[in-house]
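Support reply, case 0932

Customer input (verbatim):
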Amino acid sequence: MSQFQKLDNELVIASIESNASSIFLTNLRIFQQNTNGSHKNSNIIPVDNIDSFGLIKSESKRLLALAVLSAVFGILQLIMLSSEEPEIASQQPIIGIGLLLLAAFFLICWQLSKKTGIAIYSLSGKTEIFLQATGKNQKELLDFVQSIQNWLFLKKPPSSNPAP
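Our regenerated output:
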């Protein structure tokens, strides 16, 4: 997908590709190239300047809070209507049912807004590499993070290329 030019004495240790992004871990740097149409954007973090890395998960807690609040008020509305006179209660259950449907909508939006990905930060904080996981590349992301950990802390290549 992307063209990666290696430097002199540079070895590619691990790589991962997504729809419009590629990340390469070498013995000298981590290189990311994003392609959006005809525009290419590259991020480079030297291996010695990596501050932190790992898998991150993000989700909207506001959507979950709105879902819980809607459900609580919907249930309270239905309970209050059931304790009133039957004539009045039969006319207004639509508010409680509407709040419960709204809670279901917020729960669906919350579920769809969850994101998992890999993030790598430089020491200066100016450079960040992020790749969002898809259903297809979650295992590859885990392996890539493991490769970074092995290379940075143990200085050994991934298990697919055993050291002599």
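We compared this against your earlier run and they match. Two observations from our side: The chain has two domains: 12-58+118-154, 61-112. Residues 61-112 form one domain. Please reopen the case if you see a mismatch on your end.
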